[in-house]
Amino acid sequence: MLVKNESNSQHWYDQNGKPAYTIRGKNGKERNTTVRDAREHGYLPSVTTIIGLLDKPALTRWKMEQMLLASMTLPRLENESETDYIARVVEDSRSTGKDAMNRGTEMHDQLELFFSGVYMIEYPQFVLRTEKVITEFFGQQEWKSEESFAHNGYAGKCDLHADNIVIDFKTKTDSLDKATVYAEHMMQLAAYREGFGIPHARCAIVFVNDTETKVCEVAEDDLQKSYKKFTLLKEFFYIDKGL
Questions:
Q1: Mean pLDDT by groups of 10 residues along the chain of 243 residues
Q2: CA-CA distance, 92 to 102, in Å (whole number)?
Q3: Fewer Cβ close by (within 10 Å): the C or N end of the chain?
Q4: What are the residue boundaries of the structural domains of the chain, listed by start?
């Protein structure tokens, strides 16, 4: 199922793969880059922006569950209108997601610094554990972190890649027992390896929380099929956005 992605989280790059997430408007103030800007400047959509057209059932279900839990724990105030109550429940349900997002961003930042070779007196334990798990799985590699690319009408940044390996980190706040590689994850990895010019690279999602790290490698057949799906979705994106 396709859904419209009108989020400000859309990311754009120039033809050389340089991020163009924001642009200076006519009023001189910096703002998020829009589709109209992309048409004008020839910017390329990111992998995640293209994949953002897809509905994500698991995420949708999680959001619905958070709203239901919020409604069960938030009593309706005296004389509170239905509209105000619903708005309060929705806002409360989002707080859990915001906390998880902020923690995920923090963890991603720490992993990026480590794999970029930035010296720190002491890294968090989850970073050192993740490096150990990845090395045990893939062997010693010369990793490149958060490098960008432009390729065949799209662009993006990858969390981690080596000469023949592509990795994307997914952070979680709960147990990794049920951590699942979804179709959009496979498409993301497949698009990255093509974008970096390593079309036969091994690809994996590495799930990380505060106490565990789990490497989930994606089968080659799934990657090839995922890239075909991504290519079709990219074509739809270009038609839908008038690019």
A1: 46 94 85 92 96 79 75 80 81 71 85 89 93 96 94 95 96 87 96 96 96 96 98 96 93
A2: 16
A3: N
A4: 12-241
